[in-house]
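Example S7 (structure tokens).
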């Protein structure tokens, strides 16, 4: 099932590059070289001799290079400063992670030492620092392989990232058609409908504006006139409006644009902006300016349908969705565990995290996202037997952005790629890519997200959205905060 697309009058097609150029939020990435990655363990004698030669060569120039190592201490990459340009030597599949880790290490050192990031980068290299990361080699290989095997994603700009619920970046991969090597893990793009749980459904659930079975009509929010004078409903869905009342859970499952926009309008644009900026850390300065000038419909589009002017990154979205997998707690996502240069010069401290959503809201939203990967959901292709997997799809105009973010009780995986040929596009392949990654991870089967004590599973009337009564003919189950779903439907018995 294809996900949603939407247009506003006068809106140009947006690309990831345009978003990034406008915001200038992405740090300069490191230049890649073809120097191969090397491992010290498990090699045959000949290879071991070569490795020793490489290591000795690096150590002899220790003042002009630093190393990035994985979670087992194996060398992932070497970073050197040549003629004023930082160069990274590693395998292509590991470059994105090494790029993320080096920039992160410089940012952390900069904050700690109160120096510029440029000075921190230079210090890391000149002191021959060793940057210890959370990278898991087997997971990194699985992620790179899954994206590379997808015919559409492999031919396009693409990226993926994987983390656990403790805020540790376990793997990330980026493929760029740009010869200079853009790292799309940290490059802003459009979120599409992956923004809906963050800007609409999550906050509205938290503040009890909606519940699982709150009903909204599947019909246009407004009407717009095209260039030829024809009037059409906005926002568009992937299928025709039904005019029927559907629940919040169903709207999220099928990624209904009209219901998302109406729910956001009911929740309030100022409230949504506050959530995105102050709770989740997104840049919404442009949206605040547009709202102040009266551009309400444009902000509805930006927030509900994933067109933030500053864009979002794969890394940001991974960190945000981790909240729904970790009981509502937001933890900063780290690639770097500690940095040493003769001694530890930076060490990550244990982080309890910040409770962004209540545990109850996080679980209910999590169960709503479970519906996305079930039959009839936009992410049905991600379903794994025996694995409690949930997630959200997202696309942007002309399939320029294709997303799926999947969650299990142990991991969160975000996949993105940009469609290069709209005519050949048939489905959002990020869904099946994520499934392949999740399928390769250990100890997943049989685990389930724990239901908090403050959540109860109840039957509701599909017709009214209220607690099912004695005579309700069509009912379904939903999850609710304990004690909040009490109004009983007044359906009457059907006469003979």
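Recovered sequence:
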């Amino acid at each position: 099932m294809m996900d949603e697309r939407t247009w506003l009058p006068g809106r140009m097609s947006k690309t990831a590059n345009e978003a990034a150029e406008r915001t200038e939020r992405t740090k300069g990435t490191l230049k890649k070289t073809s120097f191969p990655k090397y491992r010290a363990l498990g090699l045959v004698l000949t290879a071991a001799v070569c490795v020793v030669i490489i290591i000795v060569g690096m150590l002899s120039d220790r003042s002009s290079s630093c190393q990035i190592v994985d979670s087992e201490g194996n060398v992932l990459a070497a970073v050197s400063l040549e003629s004023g340009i930082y160069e990274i030597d590693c395998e292509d599949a590991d470059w994105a992670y090494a790029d993320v880790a080096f920039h992160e290490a410089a940012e952390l050192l900069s904050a700690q030492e109160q120096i510029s990031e440029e000075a921190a980068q230079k210090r890391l290299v000149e002191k021959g620092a060793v940057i210890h990361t959370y990278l898991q080699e087997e997971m990194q290989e699985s992620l790179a392989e899954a994206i590379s095997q997808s015919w559409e994603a492999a031919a396009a700009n693409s990226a993926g990232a994987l983390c656990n619920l403790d805020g540790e970046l376990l793997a990330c991969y980026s493929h760029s058609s740009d010869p200079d090597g853009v790292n799309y893990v940290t490059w802003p793009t459009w979120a599409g409908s992956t923004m809906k749980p963050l800007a609409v459904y999550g906050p509205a659930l938290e503040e009890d504006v909606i519940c699982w079975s709150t009903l909204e009509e599947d019909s246009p929010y407004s009407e717009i006139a095209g260039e030829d004078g024809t009037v059409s409903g906005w926002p568009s869905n992937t299928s025709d409006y039904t005019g029927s009342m559907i629940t919040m859970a169903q709207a999220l499952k099928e990624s209904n644009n009209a219901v998302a926009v109406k729910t956001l309008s009911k929740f309030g644009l100022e409230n949504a902006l506050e959530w995105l900026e102050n709770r989740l850390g997104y840049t919404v300065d442009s949206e605040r300016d547009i709202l102040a000038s009266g551009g309400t419909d444009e902000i509805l589009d930006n927030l509900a349908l994933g067109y933030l002017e500053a864009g979002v990154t794969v890394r940001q979205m991974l960190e945000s969705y981790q909240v729904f997998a970790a009981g509502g707690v937001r933890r900063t996502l780290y690639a770097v565990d500690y940095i040493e240069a003769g001694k530890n010069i930076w060490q990550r401290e244990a982080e309890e995290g910040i409770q962004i959503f209540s545990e109850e809201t996080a679980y209910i939203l999590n169960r709503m996202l479970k519906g996305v990967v079930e039959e009839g959901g936009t992410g049905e292709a991600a379903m794994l037997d025996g694995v409690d997997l949930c997630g959200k799809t997202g696309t942007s105009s002309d399939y320029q952005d294709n997303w799926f973010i999947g969650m299990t009780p142990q991991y969160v995986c975000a996949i993105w790629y940009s469609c290069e040929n709209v005519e050949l596009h048939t489905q959002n392949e990020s869904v099946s890519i994520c499934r392949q990654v999740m399928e390769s991870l250990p100890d997943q089967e049989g685990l389930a997200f724990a239901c908090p004590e403050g959540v109860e599973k109840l039957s509701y009337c599909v017709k009214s959205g209220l607690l099912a009564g004695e005579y309700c003919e069509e009912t379904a189950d939903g999850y609710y905060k304990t004690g909040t779903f009490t109004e009983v439907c007044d359906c009457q018995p059907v006469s003979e």
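Notes on this example. The chain has 15 helices and 20 strands.
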